[in-house]
Amino acid sequence: MSRPRTSALRALVSPLQEDVFLRDYFPQRLHVSHGPLGRFARLLDVDQLKDAESVARACRTRVRVWSRGVDVRVDGVDAMECYRAGMTLYMNEVERFIPAVDRLVRRVATDLGIPFDSCGGELIASKPGAGASMHFDSDDGFNIQIRGRKRWRTAPNRWVAHPLVSYGVGFADIGRQLSAHASGPMPDRMPAGSRTHYVRPGSVVYLPRGTWHETQVVGRDESLALVVNLRVPNWADRVIEALKRRLLSRPRFRATAFERYASRSGARALLQEAARDVEAIAPHELFSDPSPYLFAVFAPTAHERCTLTSPAKARHVLRVHRARRGTTELIFEDRTLARALHRVLARPDGIYGAALLEQFGGDGQDLGRALKMLVTAGLLARSTE
Fold first, then answer.
1. What is the distance between the alpha carbons of residues 302 and 296, in angstroms, rounded to a whole number?
2. Whether residues 179 and 239 fall in one domain
């Protein structure tokens, strides 16, 4: 069954269809779309983003100020002084204090099927003529032009695939990690075959991580751009986290590892055990981190009644009756898990996911997936507050 989508991804890639974007572009290929800024009207209240000063005043984190030879972080008041002097402002994590950005970031995360905490919002404010020199980023991102116009130059990165850190021409040090992953010396100018794109309010540039790019504000107007950054774990991260969850379920792997007290034979035995666990990891474990759901508060949505029956051994049926939507039926093999979820749905108040695990025991993976399923079905409301 196909996953229903909201309008966020459609607005970002229009007139391209979402399925075509996901099949032919995401996450490897650059895409530029043009359209009226009004296409984001239902997703983003652009009046909250009317100029750099209003955004900087709302910013509760230190602002990154950049110009050639200058890269510092200052508070909002000092940031505006720097901005008036022609420097570019980079305001990170703006979803934390601008509700309109938070809504958009969450919609994008939902459309792409990734956790909310894998997305973030950044605002970039620049004066006419200002811009960013040639560099690449370690995150994917949708760059939405809100105010002003920009010229982009982009090129594929043939020096390092899937970089884990960002890099820019002129950096004093390439860094040990990037140096180990690069196939040769980094270029000092935009590679041959680069492409030029002109964007205006309403344009969106989807930039895969690692893509070389440089920008410059053109025209007389100041530029304000909103970037929805995607910080999705790589395969190594997923394998390591899945293995770590397995190992930490055993006391011997939770023990403090003092080198001076470690024996060669003991360490070898632990490594052999860990190797067996790597072989035993099932593919679904790579995408089933329960922590976003265990470390959250849940409350039932409006419903008339909730029943739990066990018509057969190893078959426990949870039925939730809602006046306008009818009955939702969920079937579980684990009675303990079914009872825990029934208790959540029957409570008038909320409950913390980890507290539920502590009360009922069982496997955190299973509980995390089950809570996610109830949230997706609209039976539970989830809050990280």
1. 19
2. no
Low-confidence ranges of the chain (pLDDT < 50): 1-6, 384-385
Residue at 334 is within a domain: yes
Radius of gyration of the chain (CA): 25
How many domains is the chain built from?
3
pLDDT 10s digits, 276-307: 999 998 887 787 655 566 667 778 887 778 88
Taking only the tens place, the pLDDT of each residue in 209-250 is 999 999 999 999 999 999 999 988 899 999 998 899 889 888
Do 325 and 332 meet the contact criterion of CB atoms below 8 Å apart? no
Angle at 361 between CA 360 and CA 364, to 5 degrees: 115
Residue 15: cis peptide before it, omega within 30 degrees of 0: yes
Burial status of residue 152 (CB atoms within 10 A of its CB: 0-12, 13-18, 19 or more) = buried
**CATH number of the domain bearing residue 79:** 2.60.120.650
Instruction: Pick the closest to residue 110 from 375, 380, 383 (CA basis).
Output: 375
DSSP type of residue 159: S
103 belongs to a structural domain? yes
pTM of the model: 0.73
